[in-house]
Design a protein that fits this description.
Distance between the termini: 56 Å
Radius of gyration: 30 Å
Strand content: 5-15%
Structural class: mainly alpha
Shape: globular
Order of helices and strands: HEEEHEEHEEHHHHHHHHHHHHHHHHHHHH
Amino acid sequence: MGGSSSSLLDESKSNYIRGRAEAELKNFSPHYRRQYSVAFFSQLHDEVEQHKTAQTQLLKQREPLEPGKPLYEEHMLHYIDEIKKWKERFVVVRANYSIECHDNYEAFVKGAQARYRLLPTGGTAVVSLDKYNALVDRAFPDPNSVSEETSPPLVTMPGPFPVFLRLPYRKDHYFCFTNEESQNHFVGILGDCIRHQNHDFLKHNTCEVQAFLKAVQFYRQEKGHYESWDMLIGSDVRVLSNLVMEELLPTLQTEMLPKLKGKKNERKRVWFATLEAAYILVQEQVSEGLNTLKDTCKETAKQLESRIRSDMDQILNSKNFLAGKLKATVSEPAVKCCTESVQPYLASILEELMGPISSGFSDVRALFENEIDALNQNFQERNNPEVLKKALEHLGEVKLHDCYQRVEVLREQLQELRNRFKYSNTSRLVHSTQNHMQQLMENVAFTLGHLLSSTLKDSSGKVPTAIEKAKQRVLKQYDYDSSTVRKKIFQEALIDITLPTIQKSLAPSCKPELQKFEQFIFADYSNFIQVENVYEEILLQTLENEVGKVVKEAASAKKHNLFVDSMDLHCVSQSSLTESKTPPGTTHASPAKQPASPAEKQPLQPEDSQSALVAEKQESEAPTTPQQGDATAASTDTAGTEEALADNMALLGLGSAMEESPNKDALLLTARQESVPDTAGEVTEGEKIEGKEDKTEEHPVHLEPQTPASINNIRELMAEQEDPEEENKDCEDKEPEQE
């Protein structure tokens, strides 16, 4: 932190800190062991049942970049804490969002080891000295409360464009630039690094991470902490170190702050150096102990794997039996608490969330559309396919700073929740939302590039039209994906804000009673079933029911362009939305579709609710229209079904045959029968198609054996042309329905 003053930690204090870290790890370990067994069972159960994440998004997503791929490279001035001097450094940001400082570009190219590697977890980047000083003062509890004149800056900046990086429990970093553009670019990159370093690790769906998160939750609850924790960031070692520091900090403040001497800046330097030294000791102790604990749990899990696989059904039955007993006791007070203390406020909290978050996603959409229009205009003026191709490759890297600012207002807007729900972790909500915005921008850019990849090889005269059509296509997909992501954000935020209230309210009356429910678990299965987990699942399900109703009502009211979940996603896949069955350089054998009317050619606006039939007509105008599937039968409107089926017949070259067929009405009847949705439950695409074929057998429509327009012949023709990865092409542009 700005100076080389040594910390206040002598050998005695260092040993004390190591002992506290070891004690915390010892208390944490039983929670982790229990949760590891539960998570391991859940993982094997998903594997046996072949649980797969349902396809909920339409845009394609590129493969993750190699962790070591550079995302940012720039020369800048960096303050060297050890020598208290500024040095020019070549700074590189990798795809894993780590920051490296190299001596110069030549050293980087030669593969020399970086002078410094920084993970800015929990950091805050600012460009204003006043804002930075405010952050520092908040982190420095001055027991003397000495009234001093404004202190000089901890570090003197060599130029007018500084960047201050404030880090918890670690020394801060200072950078300086020669111009404002470079300064703003680096601040944006730092923001990306901070957000991803905070949350990416904890999003992993591995057994270790899921067990760790649950263990932290129950460990904090054991200490009386139910609220969302703002230091649940970074790797498992860093999170556990934060837990230790949370307990250790009051002791350090009491014992060491009174010993600080000198002017305020000097006291700050010594205090922050002491904190960093303590944090390093804690991390070393925690890292070693946690790695040993994880290795032990892995070995134990391997020994239990055979029993889990052989007794899977019995374990599930035992868990369900326990859940039934617990519900009889817990459900009534849980519902009562939710109804009285949470449910009345859900709608108002959702309103506070929807405005800023939806504005941010709308700005991302508008930014993408403007960027594409500019690219298209530039191509028409210069007619340079190579420049266009390169611009499309970098489209997803466009800076979203202004879009992110829309969400930043939540930090102040949600202050009222501090009093009622003790919710202060707005940073998690803001950062996760911004990460989703960044991901959607990358997805929509990648999807557009994928759609235009073959077009760019053709004559340049068709490119502007292809870009416009592809833009409208991906914007419709963006609208649906944006709705899906935002609803997920709203649901998770509402639960994160309100669930601790239910947990804390019921803890005094319900938690002491949990132990007696352990008698309902077979001794052989006690490793895989924990009463506290089942109890938490019941509380969560109770709240999710109410949260789901509120979010669904908002979608039904068409608030902020949210879609209800009425679209049958089983007829839509990523491949069907973006991949053409016709190889580049070939033409369709079927006759071209007649041009649509001008009204049908109008681009779909974000809040447009045109019918699926118009969307299908727009899709048929795409430059490389794929062969259509049988999803047009999904319409229950008679005229719509007939016209949509006629379109499919024309695309298959069977239109005239249908007109001549005496069984035209019977064929339409079959299509209408197949359009009845399956309400028995969620099924896979393969199961749905199989069900349709069975339904046809139950309700046969006798057609002429040689009639080319029979539904079986249509299926055969489509099956011959269909790519194994593609499904029901005519659903690829259907706009999600709004209620």
